[in-house]
Amino acid sequence: MMKFDTLPTQCLVDHSLEIRVRGAVPGEAVVLKLGNRFKSTVFLSEATFEADAAGVIDLVAHAPISGSYDSVNAMGLFWSRVPITGELAAAISGLSDDPLTTTLTAESADGRQSISHAIRRVYLGPGVTSRAVDANGLVGKLFEPPGTGPHPALLVLGGSGGGIEWSQETAALMASHGYLSLALAYFAAEGLPPTLDRIPLEYFGTALQWLAAQPTAAADRIGVIGASRGGELALLLGASYPVIRTVVAYVPSGIVHGAYPENGFSAWTLGGKEIPFSESSSAEERAGIAVERINGSVLMISGIDDQLWPSTELTDIAVRRFQRNNFPHRVEHLRYKSAGHSIGWPNGPTTTLHFRHPVSGEEMNAGGTPEGTARARSDSWARMLEFVRDALAGTPPP
Predict the structure, then answer these.
(1) Rounded CA gap, 52 and 38, in Å?
(2) How far apart, in whole angstroms, are the C-alpha atoms of residue 390 and residue 351?
(3) pLDDT tens column, 328-364
(4) Prediction pTM value
(5) Residue-wise over 53-88: b if at least 16 C-beta within 10 A, else e?
(6) Cis amide bond preceding 200, omega within 30
(7) Can you tell me the distance from the alpha carbon of 300 to that of 380, in angstroms, rounded to the nearest whole number?
(8) pLDDT > 70: what percent of the chain?
(9) Distance CA 47, CA 77 (A)
(10) For a disulfide at 51, which of 24, 228, 253, 375, Cβ 3.0-4.6 Å?
(11) CA–CA separation, 87 vs 42, rounded Å?
């Protein structure tokens, strides 16, 4: 009889699994499917494997012979899920209504054997708590690891989509790895400006002070993580606030850009004055971020095929500035081929790289391929966790 090797019933979404099926007939075709339901949409992947001489299908070592991905990839069923809507989605049975629960099935091609296993993949690890933050004019959500601390702390910033959708998922995972993490909105949320337009850096200074004052925070071990315009912001904040001891910038820019949607103003102000900006990567002298002022290590992550903006080129502006100024701290720039703008935590579907921007309504292409994006996410996430642990000394292991 076929059976799965031991799999968890619940784990973090960034946890990679080793999926193996035993007890198949040697040489027979076995179809594996993975699906979850999110409201009226089903995300589904499927791949057919040939059992080896021992009757084993091992996703860590075996490539499928057909299906939604075609190479050896332990988490291929997870990132290759595609959205299915309408009547087709409604007709799919056997899936939980809980969007965090994925159901894995294995069925012999002749239908003789079929097994399934449900895994709830969560953002909050055991003992992690969360609460809304509305103090001092701040809008966000704080995620706190278990224990009295002191915990190294992180300010987590999303990009031009506004709100805290990306940042709260990232902050929840970072809290699950031992960091007191504040997902901070800075526009497109109640009580904040509707667009990315002349946002005062002092707002983030207040957030850093508030975060450092939390009873379980290690006030001398604070970092910032940002993505896209939030990556640009992370570099800018690091250059402005010495309390920040490490910066992680996903698909960032080494120059300051204007408001979004564009209206002729800067995205950021300091002391009531607009920070000089440019939409051209050649404007380094006028709009370059003074990254050499950052008081700690810096990790930057970019996709070479980024179609939203040239993040690798824009990141290299910062790299050159570090080099010219003999920056004394650790700097890394991770560049990924076949990846674009959509790099973050791993193991989610990467098949929806075309999307409508939530603020501007523009149709956009993030760039990269689903597999290239998935590999960039997996590799960079593990390296990011290690980088932040090293940068904020005393951080517990994952």
Answers:
(1) 35
(2) 33
(3) 999 999 999 999 999 999 999 999 999 888 888 889 9
(4) 0.95
(5) eebbbbbeebebeebbbeeebbbbbbbbbeebeeee
(6) no
(7) 10
(8) 98
(9) 7
(10) 24
(11) 11
